[in-house]
Amino acid sequence: MSSDLDAQLQAIRADGEQVFADAATLEALKQAEARVLGKKGPLAALFGRIRECTPEQRGPFGQRLNEAKAALAERAQGRRAELEQSAAAADLKQAQAFDPTLPPPVVARGSVHPVTYVQWEVEDVFERLGFSVVAGPEMETEYYNFEALNIPAMHPARDMQDTFWLTSGMLLRTHTSPCQVRAMERFGPPLRVIAPGRCFRYETIDASHENTFFQLEGLMIDRHISIANLIGIMKLLLREIFKRDVKVRLRPGYFPFVEPGFELDMSCSICDGAGCATCKRSGWVEILPCGMVHPNVLRFGGIDPHEYTGFAFGLGLTRLAMMKYGVGDIRVLNSGDLRPIVYPEKFSGTPITMAE
Ligand code: PHE
């Protein structure tokens, strides 16, 4: 009886040793251990058969069983150590394949739109002159866009600006000038504000026209403001932006909300004044319509025109960006070309909103 059990024990032990040696992974070893040494394994079954032995054989057989079990457990442990060591070696090899001195993959970074960048630059210049940056709504009332700017209904000047009308009776502002009367109402005189923003016109798009573009309105109201103040500040602005003296010319210009009104043109920097598609072959680009605030507009803003005077200008930000960066076609600016022109050093901040 005992020799039969002994033979089985030998076979189980030899088999178990082989199975552990064959385990190629830690996971396989774990499974092999459960199979050989587990509660339902062959060794456990032999323990159950001790009672088949004679009383004298029981002790020695039980001892041999325990020895075999301990020896097998030790084999498994040895194999585990081997497998762990080779796994660690593989990890190390992989770690050595990582070279921390390699440059990281290139990540496409966003950049600031040229118009935004020019806007920030202009804001910077005016903030140094004591102007505040304000913002009006893009969806405007007829009152602020036209009426309060001395352009009554039926006035032919409404045709100067083809307008997107909304079904609600409101409109998409055709210029940033509605910010003038909003600022007068909100802050009162004396007043120094600039209002950058998006404007919309029902235009056919070509190299120099867009239905969506950016302007930057300027308004300064105080006692004794004259045309000399206006011209001085306009020249300073262009000098700061272009970092050189820019050739300009002043022509009379008609806008119902200024009197007198001017068109300030700058020599086209795309063709250096020779004439190209951007400047309509004239060599000059209209960039700064401006003038002295009309007394009626001051009255609409609740300001006494006998006490205060002021000047206003409507800088074409989109056009200025084109001149500054040599973009010959306005359509490029909305084309989704993400190549950066410049990176900002500074963001001027959040404008004071004047929307209700
Ligand atoms: N708002 C005018 C326009 O877009 C420009 C302008 C602004 C003219 C301020 C004079 C003074 O046509």
Structure description:
The chain has helices at 2-22, 26-37, 42-48, 55-97, 114-128, 142-145, 178-187, 227-242, 295-300, 317-325, and strands spanning 132-135, 139-140, 171-172, 191-200, 212-222, 248-252, 258-267, 284-293, 309-316, 352-353. It has 356 residues and is an alpha+beta fold. It folds into two domains: 3-97; 114-334, 2-Layer Sandwich (BirA Bifunctional Protein, domain 2), CATH 3.30.930. The strands form two sheets. Strands 6-7-8-9-5-4-1-10 form an eight-stranded mixed beta sheet, sandwiched between helices. Strands 2-3 form a two-stranded antiparallel ribbon. Helix 1 (2-22) packs parallel to helix 4 (55-97). It is rod-shaped and about 130 Å long. The N and C termini lie far apart (103 Å). Residues 343-348 have low confidence and may be disordered. Phenylalanine binds next to strand 7, strand 8 and strand 9.
Instruction: Choose one word for the global shape.
Output: rod-shaped
Q: What percentage of residues falls in helices of 4 or more residues?
A: 40-55%
Q: Write down the overall mean pLDDT.
A: 87
- Main CATH class of the largest domain: Alpha Beta
- The main sheet orders its strands as 6-7-8-9-5-4-1-10
Biggest pleated sheet? 8 strands, mixed
Query: What is the succession of H and E elements?
Result: HHHHHEEHEHEEHEEEHEHE
Count of distinct strands: 10
**Distance between the ends:** 103 Å
- CATH homologous superfamily placement of the largest domain: Bira Bifunctional Protein, Domain 2
